[in-house]
Write a structure and sequence with these properties.
The structure is a single chain. The two termini are about 40 Å apart. A hairpin with a 2-residue loop joins strand 3 and strand 4. This protein has 2 domains: about 120 residues, 2-Layer Sandwich (Tetrahydropterin Synthase, Chain A); about 30 residues. By secondary structure, the chain is α+β, with helices and mostly antiparallel strands. A 4-stranded antiparallel beta sheet has the order 1-2-3-4, with helices on one face.
Length: about 160
């Protein structure tokens, strides 16, 4: 059994497709973070402390023009790139404090989400996409089992 916490955060930020700040548009990005406590007996901060660390980390993005930040220099700060940057940074913060960052979802609107995870098939805010992904994974599994069975028959 996997037991984990899910927390939601919001960031108000802006970005532009052409790297010109006057052409920037605003978003209220929603982030959903799935996390679990490590069980290896290391020093662990409380959930409330981890929440505060997460809020402090995300504060650097609140109200920011993302194109102007170092972590987005030379790239368009898309929801996909943001999710990777946030996940990589939060994974380090969590690990250093006795937690695992399992999954991060970044929404730039209610219908568009980018999910970054180091686990497979965690529940999502978007059940339809998770169902589609589950079906695809199962279909791929059937294909590989079939290939494996054929190889085993040929080599026996």
């Amino acid at each position: 059994m996997i037991k984990y916490y899910i927390c939601k955060y919001f960031i108000n930020a802006m970005h532009s497709m052409d790297n010109i700040q006057r052409n920037a548009h605003r978003h209220t990005f929603a982030l959903t973070i799935s996390m679990e406590k490590k069980t290896n007996g290391t020093h662990m901060v409380t959930f409330g402390d981890l929440d505060e660390l997460t809020r402090r980390y995300l504060a650097q993005y609140n109200g920011a023009y993302l194109n102007g930040l170092t972590q987005f220099q030379g790239v368009y700060p898309s929801v996909e790139w943001m999710a990777e940057v946030f996940f990589d940074d939060l994974e380090i913060i969590f690990r250093e404090n006795g937690w695992n960052c399992l999954q991060l979802e970044v929404f730039d609107n209610p219908l568009n989400v980018c999910i970054v995870s180091n686990q497979i098939l965690l529940p999502s805010e978007n059940p339809e996409k998770m169902t589609q992904l589950s079906v695809r994974v199962l279909e791929e599994g059937k294909k590989y089992r079939s290939m494996l069975n054929r190889l085993m028959e040929e080599n026996w």
